[in-house]
Design goal:
about 500 residues; alpha/beta; seven-stranded parallel β-sheet; six-stranded mixed β-sheet
């Protein structure tokens, strides 16, 4: 088997860079463990909960490299970044590594001899030895047990899945709490670096009693039915209206997009006004979560605060709270609308229906997803302004997803594109989704159910990691305001 060809094929595969990295990690773990076992030495993968900057630890050294050796793995889909980035990586590892005698930096690429010498020469300034290995060194090690390489390579997907299952079985509360603590520390750092963009879903407005999507659709059906029947001088009881609405929803296959197409065609005028009336019928201007979201946007001295907000909601509650806090902002709901340098952009990428419409133009054209054709427009037009804005932030910033189920196919598609555009492979996802933990009734009394919960969490984390997302688990949604407060206060 052409081992080098297979490895480089994985690096540049059509899979996301995160999946390719996990697969290569698995290969290196299996092959290095076997290689060191023949030398009577150990290979230990480092838990992500340990505050170190390397992937593995070789406590007994390797070959003729003695002592305690750290091993860090990197891969690149753009060879031009090698020389500029690797010295920074060595410095970062050095700053967070103690009690090691040597560092092996494994670069899963084919590095020209001249570049390799330049990198090696620049790495002689640290208090430990630095060794740089490229794909050719890996091939040399892997060839010592080609049969094991073939078996591992052939069953990589199965092995990764099994690792996830095993991790879930042994998982306990301490695991997710340690992960959460580490993620929050990273976000505090990113916040201080003016690098965070918030992505807000329906959950962000829920506690302010904004109508949910289901409530919105149901009440629009009731309104539509009532209008049509009254036009024919037919009075109908409210209970009967509800029954008819439920049957229409059922007839449309419980598909929100089919239902919204039906509704938009049914209303000849005042469609947006009807949505607004229902949306704000029981709404409050704020909630604990909205207050913390907007407090996070208040810039500290000399800082931006939050770089931007991507808002999938129609409501203007974020704007109301920002106005109360005197944060300069600008609502963006169509192409050609841009914030000033001093303004925080609030990008309503699915549409915008403010309670007070004064000062806003062409709002009706902003309702992108309140029709099947509108949603198709987003899916099929890669250069649509809403897609370009989201993709730009996903590629260049650290994004926090709040109040989102993360099931929207267009958003997931954009995340996948963003991970494909990432040319540097590493074990750190750059985005974070705050999600509620999955609980089965009576699982605290049933060890089998408890283990299933752990496996489910591990699988969810693995799936989202391929999209470049870390999950920050909470037991209750009420924990989210305090979590955002921690990021703000550092």
């Amino acid at each position: 088997m052409n081992i080098k060809g297979k490895i480089l094929e994985m690096v540049n595969s059509e899979y996301s860079v995160q999946y390719a990295y996990m697969a290569i990690e698995k290969l290196i773990t299996v092959m290095m463990s076997d290689y060191l076992a023949h030398q009577g030495k150990q290979f230990e993968w480092v838990s992500m909960n340990r505050d170190v900057a390397y992937d593995a630890w070789l406590p007994d050294g390797i070959d003729d490299i003695p002592g305690s050796v750290a091993l860090e793995i990197k891969m690149y889909r753009n060879g031009r970044v090698l020389a500029s980035r690797l010295h920074e990586i060595i410095k970062m590892v050095a700053s967070r590594s103690e009690n090691i005698d040597a560092l092996i930096l494994v670069i899963v690429n084919d590095i020209p001899a001249a570049v390799m010498k330049q990198l090696q020469d620049r790495s002689n300034q640290f208090n430990f030895k630095v060794y740089i290995w490229d794909v050719n060194k890996l091939v040399e090690i892997f060839e010592t047990n080609e049969n094991l390489f073939i078996e591992t390579y052939t069953n990589l997907s199965k092995a990764l899945f099994q690792d996830t299952i095993n991790s879930g079985i042994s998982r306990d509360n301490e695991t997710y709490l340690l992960d959460k603590k580490k993620h929050i520390q990273t976000l505090i750092s990113e916040y201080k670096n003016d690098n965070i963009v918030l992505f807000l879903g329906a959950g962000a407005s829920k506690d302010a009693d904004i109508a949910t999507w289901d409530e919105l659709i149901s009440e629009l059906f009731v309104t539509l039915i009532d209008e049509q029947l009254r036009a024919k001088n037919i009075d109908i009881e409210f209970a009967d209206q509800q029954k008819i609405a439920a049957e229409i929803v059922k007839q449309n296959g419980d598909s929100p997009l089919l239902q919204t197409r039906f509704l938009r065609n049914g209303f000849t005028d005042r469609f947006e006004a009807h949505i607004g009336n229902i949306l704000y019928k029981n709404a409050k201007d704020t909630s604990d979560l909205l207050e913390e979201i907007c407090y996070l946007c208040v810039p500290d001295r000399g800082k931006l605060g939050i770089r931007a907000i991507i808002n999938y909601n129609f409501d203007d509650l974020v704007e109301k709270n920002l106005k109360r806090l005197r944060v300069k902002h600008h609502s963006i709901y169509g192409e050609g609308i841009t914030p000033d340098n001093e303004e925080l952009g609030i990008y309503h990428v699915h549409g915008f229906i403010p309670q007070n419409k004064d000062g806003y133009n062409n709002l009706a054209q902003s309702l992108l997803v309140f029709s099947e054709e509108g949603y198709h427009k987003l899916m099929l037009e890669p250069y649509h302004w809403a897609n370009m804005i989201q993709l730009n932030f996903m590629m260049n910033n650290t994004c926090i997803f709040v109040g989102l189920s993360m099931t929207d196919p267009n958003m997931r598609r954009l995340l996948e594109i963003a991970t494909q555009k990432n040319t540097e492979g590493n074990s750190i996802c750059k985005h974070y989704a705050i999600m509620r933990r999955f609980h089965i009734q009576d699982s605290d009394k049933n060890n089998t159910l408890k283990r299933f919960e752990g496996v489910n969490e591990s699988l969810q984390e693995s799936f989202f990691k391929e999209l470049g997302i870390n999950i920050i688990w909470v037991d209750e949604y009420s924990e989210i305001p305090n979590l955002l407060r921690q990021i703000k206060e550092g």
